[in-house]
Write a structure and sequence with these properties.
Strand order of the largest sheet: 3-5-7-9-11-13
Radius of gyration: 25 Å
Strand content: over 45%
Oligomer: single chain
Order of helices and strands: HEEHEEEEEEEEEEEE
Helix content: under 10%
Shape: globular
Length: about 160
């Protein structure tokens, strides 16, 4: 069979659509929609690396992962302390997962989870508690209902 030039001219060119960005939920979003882009940004995690040594106050809307050393106050939604993590001070979060060491005054509205390599010492207030075999909880611990507003930090001295 032979193809005629007339049929080639009638070929339909592909149409291109506007660029999209795919977020972590696999939902395509338009590039010019700032609310959707902001949603991606607000799902961020602050990572404090193994060699980092921070003294001061850290506030984050979402998750903080501590692999290094922090001495001070931390306030966030979810806090994870890795095996190499060492945290000392006042902590306020929705959830706290400990594989390393945490020492101080801790207020957790939701789950306080201490893994087998984890150690928590000081004054712990939590909504629910899970301690793996080998995990250590030393000091004062207190259950607070999630629906009750948490108390603010009070003057408190290390044990």
């Amino acid at each position: 069979k032979q193809m005629s030039l007339l049929k080639l001219k009638s070929k339909i060119e592909p149409t291109y659509t506007k660029k999209t960005i795919t977020n972590y939920d696999k939902q395509p979003i338009k590039e010019n929609n700032p609310k959707q882009v902001e949603k991606i940004i607000t799902q961020s995690t602050l990572i404090i690396g193994e060699e980092a040594n921070i003294i001061g106050t850290i506030k984050e809307k979402n998750e903080i992962s501590v692999q290094g050393t922090v001495d001070g106050e931390i306030e966030c939604k979810d806090l994870r302390v890795g095996k190499s993590g060492n945290l000392k001070g006042k902590i306020k979060a929705e959830t706290l997962h400990i594989e390393g060491t945490v020492e101080g005054e801790v207020i957790i509205k939701g789950l306080l989870k201490i893994k087998s390599t984890g150690s928590a010492s000081g004054k712990m207030t939590y909504g629910s508690l899970h301690v793996d075999e080998g995990g250590k909880l030393i000091g004062e611990s207190d259950f607070k209902d999630k629906n009750i507003t948490q108390e603010e930090f009070k003057d408190w001295k290390n044990l």
